[in-house]
Amino acid sequence: MEDEKLHRFGTDVRGILLPGRFTYPFHYTPHPLCLLAAEEVQHYVASRVDWADELAKGKMFGVLVVEDEAGGVGYLAAFSGNLVHSNQHEFFVPPVYDLLQPDGFFKKEEEEISALNHRIASWKQSPAYLEARLTYEKAQAESARVLQTFKEEMKLAKLKRDRLRQQSLTDEEEANLVRESQFQKAEYKRLERKWKAELDTLETRLRPLLERIEAGKAERKRRSAALQLRLFSQFRFLNARGEQADLCTLFADTPTRVPPAGAGECAAPKLLQYAYLHHLRPRAMAEFWWGASPVSEVRHAGHFYPACQGKCGPILRFMLQGLEVDDDPLAKEPVLTPSLEILYEDAYLLVVNKPASMLSVPGKGARTSVYAEVRRRYPEATGPLLVHRLDMDTSGLLLIAKRKDIHQALQAQFKHRAVRKQYVAWLEGSVQTDKGVVDLPLRPDPLDRPRQLVDKVQGKPAVTRFEVLRREGGRTLVAFYPETGRTHQLRVHAAHPEGLGHPIVGDPLYGTSSTRLYLHAARLTFRHPATGEEMTIKKEAAW
Predict the structure, then answer these.
(1) DSSP 8-state symbol, 49
(2) Does 517 reside within a domain?
(3) Could you report the per-residue pLDDT of 477-525, keeping only the tens digit for each?
(4) How do the residues of the chain divide into helix, strand and coil, expressed in percent and rounded to 5?
(5) Which class for 191: exposed (0-12), middle (13-18), buried (19 or more C-beta within 10 A)?
(6) Rounded distance, CA 75 to CA 267, Å?
(7) 321-350 burial, b if ≥16 CB within 10 A, otherwise e?
(8) For residue 449, what pLDDT band results from cuts at 50, 70 and 90?
(9) Does residue 325 sit within a domain?
(10) In the annotation, is 253 catalytic?
(11) Tens of pLDDT, residues 425-448
(12) What is d(CA 64, CA 51) in angstroms, rounded to the nearest whole number?
């Protein structure tokens, strides 16, 4: 009997060669079979009008091209998280563990914790608690007011006594002043004791009501943590060697040491788990977005995206063991190391044209960097050398200081926004607005570095001016003038729906991969620290 989760292609795919090695999930170009599978899944979900409202909000889907034991080729499909409040749908593979099953421990304990939440809320709204808390807080405020007023009266009385002592006083008058001072101090102490006794009485009424609430919160925290750990232990993943590991084990050596919420519920782990359990050989995979983009992220319907590092990194690195997997393209040195063109040089600084695919500073792999090349060419140079950085995929002008004091002076110009920069980029589609400003604060995505998120509450200010240079061939050439220098600022501001809404051509993180990222730092204006001369260096993009 044919497996209902294993889908055969609707077209003849015998002429399409299977890949020699499995997809590296964190940076890939979708295989032609994955493109066909994704197209069929998109056609299916579009036909599900009963899901339209939820799908319109956006959802990540995944496809896995597999071979069965007879050598037949097909694909599996999955979605991230749940769909219309369920993990089980006939077209898609099931979850690694179904936490939504009605009779499962998770739902039962979740209901218990929810009931505890309601009890805590009712305790906090009970008339007895509200009356006791309000009475205590009023008395506390009145106590502070009365004591402060008496202190001020004592202070004024002391000033009056000090003025009187500047005159000639009899012994009896001096004694009266001393008695007045002693009386006021004693009266203040009596007031303190009176209010303390009253507050203690009120606190005695309030304390058991407050302790019940705090005990409920502590129980909720303990039970939630225990439930989370028990849930994590139910997510047991297989790899191609037949080995098994749960979430807690896989995340034990990560910086957080515990799995993030939602780990194991993404599409890729579901697909691989089902394939291993049903003796299907994974050959290629891809994940794509369907629906509207989330408010904080950049997602485009029908675009393919790499697996996230935060939730899926440790899981997929384990699950792929035993498969021959493509190398990480970002870790490989290009076949031909690009040369570093010097556009300007004097005794103090130089400006180079960084090629796309070259790192600004050394990374984890062996890939050449601008810093390493400059350090090799100028061994006598001092200081950090690079005054600023460009993304590896971005080409263009980089300013380098040969001396530490020059570096500090140039960095000060960047800090005070005295350096003017122009970037040029080809954007997908036709940008309708001729010029404008994008103001979208940014912060890193902790679960998917180096991706950046738009966050209007906790993000750092990020402002970009832009103008359209020309439109042709379904693309738009744009000049960017960044007023701040956040990571991926231009890429996010171009792609985000509240920005230009058009990704930079070739952007693998926020758009669609191509031969390169079509973003180039074309012009740099700064004041020379040694001569005081304003300098402008230009370099046209090599497109």
Answers:
(1) G
(2) yes
(3) 999 999 999 999 999 999 999 999 999 999 989 998 888 999 999 999 9
(4) 35, 20, 40
(5) middle
(6) 13
(7) eebebbeeebeeeeeeeeebeeeeeeebbb
(8) confident
(9) no
(10) no
(11) 999 999 999 999 999 999 999 988
(12) 22
Residues 405 and 502 both lie in one domain = yes
Write out the DSSP string of 286-345.
EEEEESSPPSSS---TT-EEPPPHHHHHHHHHHHTTTS-B---TTTSPPSSPPP-EEEEE
Q: What is the pLDDT of residue 307?
A: 95
Quote the crossing angle between the two packed helices 127-165 and 105-125, to the nearest 10°.
Answer: 50
Residues 6+ away with beta carbon under 8 Å from 254: 314
Secondary structure of 451-491 as H, E, C letters: CEEECCCCCECCEEEEEEEEEECCEEEEEEEECCCCCCHHH
Query: Where on the phi/psi map is residue 322: left (φ > 0), alpha (ψ -120 to 50), or beta?
Result: left
Position 101 confidence tier, pLDDT thresholds 50, 70, 90: confident
- The domain containing residue 186 runs over which residues? 110-231
Query: For residues 343 and 387, is the Cβ–Cβ distance under 8 A?
Result: no
Does residue 226 sit in the same domain as residue 256?
A: no
Residue in 391, 393, 448, 507 annotated catalytic? 391
Same domain, 134 and 208: yes
Dihedral sign for Cα 28, 35, 52, 267, please. Answer: negative
Q: How many angstroms separate the first and last alpha carbons of the chain?
A: 54
Distances (CA, A) of 177 to 152, 172, 182: 18, 9, 9
Domain end: 231, 262, 290, which one?
231
Picking from 2, 4, 1, the residue whose alpha carbon sits closest to that of residue 92 is 4
Q: How far apart are CA 80 and CA 225, in angstroms?
A: 23
Q: Among residues 285, 319, 353, which one ends one of the domains? A: 319
**115 and 65 within one domain:** no
Cβ neighbours around 373 below 10 Å, total: 17
pTM of the model: 0.76
Burial of 138 (0-12, 13-18, 19+ CB in 10 A): exposed
**How far from the centroid of its chain's Cα atoms is residue 63's Cα?**
25
The answer on 227 and 140 residing in a single domain is yes
Q: Are 367 and 300 members of one domain?
A: no
For residue 531, give both structure tokens: 């001569």
